[in-house]
Amino acid sequence: MPQRIPDEARLPELTLRGVILGAVITLLFTASNVYLGLKVGLTFASAIPAAVISMAVLRRMKGANKLENNMVQTQASAAGTLSAIIFVLPGLLMIGYWQGFPFWQTTAICAIGGILGVLYTIPLRRVMVVQSDLPYPEGIAAAEILEVGSRDSRVSAGQDSAGSKPTDGSPVDESQRRDRAGEERASDDESPAAGEPGAREILLGGVVAAAFSIASGGLRVLAESVSVWFSAGRAAFQLSTGFSLALVGAGYLVGIVGGMAMLIGTLIAWGIAVPWLTSITPLEAGQSLADAGMALWSDKVRFIGAGTIGIAAVWTLATLFKPMLIGIRTSLGAMRGDQGTFHEQARTERDLPAGIILALTGVLLVLLTGVFAIFLHEAAPQLGGGAFWALTLGSVAFAGVFGFLIAAACGYMAGLVGSSSSPISGIGIVAVILVSLLLLGFTAVSDAFDALDPAVARMLPTALALFVTSVILAVAAISNDNLQDLKTGYLVGATPWRQQVALIIGCLIGAMVVPPVLSLLYNAYGFVGAMPREGMEPGQALAAPQASLMTAIVRGVFSHDLEWTMIVIGLAIGAVLIGVDEWLRKRGGIARLPVLAVGIGIYLPPSINMPLVIGAVLGWLIDRRLRARALARGDDVERASELPRRRGVLLASGLIVGESLVGVLLAGIIGLSGAPAPLALVGDDFATIAQWLGLAVFVAVCFGFYRRVLAAPKAG
To answer: Which of 638-649 are b and which e, b meaning 16 or more Cβ less than 10 Å from the residue's Cβ?
Structure first.
C-alpha cells in the first residue's frame, strides 16, 4: 500500500493550475463518456486515466506532488461521472416532452444532484472509507499510481533521501524543506531498490492492455468477447466472457469473495433463468436462439437482478444505519466542538464542517424546488396550486431523502466491486419504479389532472418520473465515484475538506459540459425513438439503451404491464441470499456472500461479469501459490508475499490505466470520424476468427500476469 503523507506536512493540494488542468481533462472525459454511454450503454471510471495525465503534465512544473495530482484526478473523475445522467434524460426526448436539452435545466439537474452526492457522502467517509475493510479497487489502484509517479518524479529530479536540497545547490526555505521531507519520509522504505516493483509494472500492464484494446476495439483483429450458445431441449444456454483486461485488473483488486458472488449471480441468470424462460417461451418468426435468449435476459431477467439489488441495497442500508448515524453525529459534534475545532483536528481528518454541509444542502434543496416548479409549470400551466405544490415539494422530498439512502448504498457497492462495475442503471431502475408508483398513487387520489389536456395528463407523470429520477441518478453516480476518490485521498494522506471542495468544483464543471455534448450528439446522430429531423439515417442513431429501458419501465408502470413477477422473484432470491450471508457471518471465517455483488452478476451481461471473476480467481490462485511456496521454504508467509502482491496490484492498476486511456482515444476518433469502426482492418466475415484469436491472446495475457507476479522476489 502507498505511504501516507504525514499530518504535519503542508504541501500544495488544491491549486489554480490543478483546477484548470482538471477542467481540461473533464471536457475530454465527459464528452467521451457521454458518447460511449449513449452508443453502447457503458461508461468508464475516469479517476485513473486522469491521475496518469495529471502526473504527466504536473511533473514538468515546479513544486508538483502526489497530493496535487490527487486533487486533479478527484475533480476530473467527479465531472466525468456525471455523464451517467444519460441513463435517464434522453427518455424525455423519447416520450416527446423535450425537443432538445435545455441548457440551464439540464445543468441545474446535474449540478444540484452531483453536489448533493458529494455532501451526502461526507458523513459516510469515516465509516465507509477509514473504518471499513471494503476493497475499493479503483481507489487503491489510483493511490498506487500516484505513489509510484511521485516517487519516480523525485528520483528523476535528483532529490536526496532527506529532501533537504536540490542537487544544484540552490537554497531551500526551511518550511519547504520540512514539507518535502514529510513527503519523502512517507516513501523512504519504498525507494526503487533492485527488484522492487514500481512504475515499470504499471507501464508494462498499461502497454499490454492498450495494445489489446487497440487491436480489439480499434483494429477489430481481436474480438472484445466470445460467446457460445447451445441448447438442451428447448432451453438455451450461453457460455460467454468479455476480454476486458481492465476488468481483469479490477477483479484482481476486488478479491475472491466479491468475484464468487458475481459468478453466482451470473449462474442464476444464465444457468437457470434464461434457460427456463427460453424453454417456456416460443421463438418468434425468424428469431434465432441467441436473439431469443438475449431478449429474454434484457426484458425479464435483468428485472430479477434489479429486485435482488433493491433488497440488498435496503439490507445494506439497514446494517449501515447505526454506523451512518455515528458518522453523522461525529460531523455534527465537530460543528459543536465536541471533536475539537476544525483547526484542532489532524489535517487528514478535517472534513468540510457540518454547518457548511447543512447550509449547502438546504440551499441546494431550495434551488431544486425552483427547478421542479419551473419544470411542472412549463409542462402544465393550468395545474392547480394545491396539486402543483404537492407534486413539487413531494418530488424534492423524495429526491432529497431517497438520494441520501442511495448515496450510502452506491458508496458501498463502489467499495465492494469498484466504480466501473457498479450497476448505477440498476439503482436508476429501483428509483424510477418507486417514483412512478408514488405518482401513480397521487393520480389515483387526486382529480387535479382531470382539468388538463388529455395528452398533457398522459405525458406529465411519465416526464416528471424521469426528471426526478435524473436527480437521484446524479446523486447515485457521484456517491458511487466520490467514496472511491476519498479512499484514494485517505491512502495518500490528502486533506479531506480540500478533496471535497475539488469534488464540488468537478460537479459544477461537469454539469456545464454535459448539456452541450448531449445536444451536439443528439443533433448529429439522434437517438433510437427520437430523431431531431426528418430524413436522418436511423442506422446512425445512438441506442441510449438505459434511457430506453427507463422509459419503457415508466410507461409499464402507468400502463400496468411492468414485469412485477421478475422483480418479486429477485426480491425473494435476495432475501434467501441475505439469510445465507448472515449464516456465514455467524460461523466466522472469510467465507461471505455479498448479496449486492450477486445482484450485479444477474443484472450485468456476462461479458462484463466474467472478466471480473477471472481476475478474482487469478488473484486467489496467486495467493495460494505464494503461500505454498513460502511454507515449503520455511519463510514467513506475509513477508515472502509482500513484494509479489504489490507487483500484482501495480500490474492490475496498469491494465486499468491502459484500457481506460485507449477507451478515451478511441471514443474521440469515433466521434470525429462519425464511423462506428474507423480503424477497422477487417470486415464482419472475420468475426469468428477474431473471437478465437481474442480468446487465445486473453488467456496468454492472464497466464503472463500470473507468471510475472510469482516471479517477484520476496522482501529482503
So the answer is: eebbebbbbbbb
